[in-house]
């Protein structure tokens, strides 16, 4: 019977020694890697990378808007920044431009007509317009 208790005691001691020794090695390795790692190079990270995405920006990204519009350059339709420069962010302009998104139209920016988007709700269209007008 003493051998049975002795074997259990020895195995337990080995187990605890192995666990305790491993955590010390891990702590030593973690502190060594923390001290030796160079500073992160953030030169390729956008300054707005941590900025939260607005609902309007998300809606535009999920729609077909970027087929004809880009943020800074004219494609088929005007650049979003050009729209923001032309229209002050007033409730009347937000409402007017939201209707333009839903109903489509032409004449304000050239001969090419903007296709209607009847499946976009008025609230979503207003969120899109608010995002566009914030790009000044």
Explain this structure to me?
This protein folds into two domains: 1-35; 55-133, Orthogonal Bundle (Cytochrome Bc1 Complex, Chain D, domain 2). It is mainly α and 136 residues long. It is 58% helix and 0% strand. The radius of gyration is 31 Å and the shape is elongated. The chain has helices at 2-36, 55-62, 65-68, 80-86, 91-103, 122-133.
Layout of helices and strands:
Elements (H helix, E strand, L loop, with lengths): L1 H35 L18 H8 L2 H4 L11 H7 L4 H13 L18 H12 L3
Helix pairs in contact: 2-6, 5-6
List key phrases describing it:
136 residues; 2 domains; elongated; 6 helices
In short, what is this structure?
By secondary structure, the chain is mainly alpha-helical.
CATH topology of the largest domain: Cytochrome Bc1 Complex, Chain D, domain 2
CATH architecture of the largest domain: Orthogonal Bundle
CATH class of the largest domain: Mainly Alpha
- Poorly predicted ranges (pLDDT <50, ≥5 residues)? none
- Overall average residue pLDDT: 81
Rg value:
31 Å
Helix fraction by DSSP (H/I, runs of at least 4): 55-70%
Through-space gap between termini: 85 Å
The percentage of residues in β strands lies in under 5%
Number of DSSP-assigned strands: 0
Query: SS-based structural class?
Result: mainly alpha
The 3D shape can be described as: elongated
